[in-house]
Amino acid sequence: MNLGRFSRVAGVLGTAAAFSLLPMALAFAQDAAPAAAAAASPIPAATIDKADTGFMFLATTIVLLMTVPGLALFYGGLVRTKNMLSILMQVLAIVCVVALIWVTYGYSMAFTNGGSLNDYVGGFSKLFLAGVTPSTMAATFTNGVYIPELSFVAFQMTFACITPALIVGAIAERVKFSAILLFVILWVTFVYFPMAHMVWYWGGPDVMADAAIKGGDALATASADAGMLFKWGALDFAGGTVVHINAGVAGLVAAIIAGKRVGFGKEHMPPHSLTLTMVGASLLWFGWFGFNCGSNLEISVTAVIAMINTFVATAAAGVAWMLAEWVVKGKPSLLGLASGVVAGLVAVTPAAGFAGAMGSIVLGLVAGVICFIACTGIKNALGYDDSLDVFGVHAVGGIVGAIATGILVNPDFGGSGLADYTTKPGELVAGSYDMVSQVIIQAKAVGFTIVFTAVMTAILILLVKMIVGLRPSEEKEREGLDISDHGERAYHY
């Protein structure tokens, strides 16, 4: 997405010792730029490709489908009948509110230069989409090939919408609608937009190629205009850190601060409709092809790689969770299989365009088992009330996938390797790769995401608690949020 492949450039330019883009960029600019310029072929003229534009239109719409109704139904089936409508309302309202925030200032904060704060967040040069017209273009991963910037805005908007919607699963059935909305507005502003900037913002392949041809300090300057985690060389094809670890950690923090549901641990709280949960999980899997394949931003071979990986990693995780549950509990459940499917989707997200198919299967098998353990043994041991296992699936699955990406990108394991847009400007050649160094970079990015998200979420959720309060009264919670918040029910029998 999301500039997933873009971040390979940072890995190429970074050194194993420094794990940073900038030092190597400076050395490259001083010592290697003349040779690169001499060997360079002309950079193709910028053009908008109609096939890529159509591909992004399709990817964007099916990512929306995975949120509404996909995520809404998946979560809705897992709660009790009296809270079904509230979950549907929360997810749909979040999509509407965040979409408006995104085009007002979110896109600008994520994908523009932030001046002195550029390592961490963008600026406001594209406030209200200023300067974004039907004729402005956004880079893809191929020199000279672009898509309309508005299509990039819309695609990234769907990611901004689904990420905070994931969080509500952790605090389902016990937080007021007003608190949910205020928290989401603050969270996307101070957590999601900065994370998207830090991981995915950079100039694009043509900017790097042009800087390499110019030589001197041009490459160092171009390399410096990027988010902090991107400059570290962190790989995140479609949102392992930005979406899943981010949302999962936020969900856990919010669940702990909000407190447990009334009756948690004492009353049986089964899902009211696993039928709807299965429908929702299936829509999530379908929509995830837009999520992962669309993150390539062009209909090239990498999109096909992301497609096959999204198939097989997901299937492997579903089977792994099912078998683990069968062994431990004596029976395989539909809830377990559906949860495993989502865990596989989460785990493969950061690796989707980097890994090979066999590596993705191994990733799915590992993620399925680890997420099963996180959602059962670890959750029960620690006693926190993450209502719908947002942390156990999204944060844990995202951590497994993000770190494993550093291994699975290895060409010896069927991975794509790291792309180098500067050695031969205008062409795409393979760059250097050191597995240990890349895994350390991935772990460093994961650690930063966990700490940043946890601290910021705690501050914001406590602020919301002070302003509007988090919980309804015990009486209203027992009655259900459908009636207490919205005055209507999902079902009338």
Describe it.
By secondary structure, this protein is mainly α. It has a single domain, classed as Ammonium transporter AmtB like domains (Ammonium transporter fold, Orthogonal Bundle). Helix content is 65%, strand content 3%. The chain is built from 18 helices and five strands. The strands form two sheets. It has a three-stranded mixed β-sheet. A two-stranded antiparallel sheet has the order 4-5. A hairpin with a 5-residue loop joins strand 2 and strand 3. Helix 3 packs antiparallel against helix 4 and helix 10 packs antiparallel against helix 15. The longest helix has 33 residues. The radius of gyration is 22 Å and the shape is globular. The N terminus is likely disordered.
Layout of strands and helices, then pairs:
Elements: H1 7-13, H2 21-39, E1 47-48, H3 50-78, H4 84-111, E2 137-139, E3 145-148, H5 149-167, H6 177-200, H7 205-214, H8 218-224, H9 228-232, H10 240-258, H11 274-293, H12 301-329, H13 334-348, H14 357-382, H15 390-408, E4 419-420, E5 429-430, H16 435-467, H17 474-479, H18 481-486
Parallel strand pairs: 1-3
Antiparallel strand pairs: 2-3, 4-5
Element-by-element helix/strand order: HHEHHEEHHHHHHHHHHHEEHHH
| CATH topology description | Ammonium transporter fold
The helix content is 55-70%
Quote the distance from N terminus to C terminus: 45 Å
Give the low-pLDDT segments.
Answer: 1-40
Quaternary structure of the protein:
single chain
Q: What's the number of structural domains?
A: 1
Task: Supply Rg.
Answer: 22 Å
Q: Based on Cα principal axes, name the global outline.
A: globular
Structure summary, number of beta strands: 5
What characterizes the major β-sheet? 3 strands, mixed
Number of helices: 18
CATH-scheme architecture: Orthogonal Bundle
Strand content: under 5%
What topology, given as strand order, has the largest sheet?
1-3-2
Assign the CATH class: Mainly Alpha
**What's the CATH H-level superfamily name?**
Ammonium transporter AmtB like domains
Mean pLDDT equals: 91
Which class of secondary structure composition applies to the elements? mainly alpha
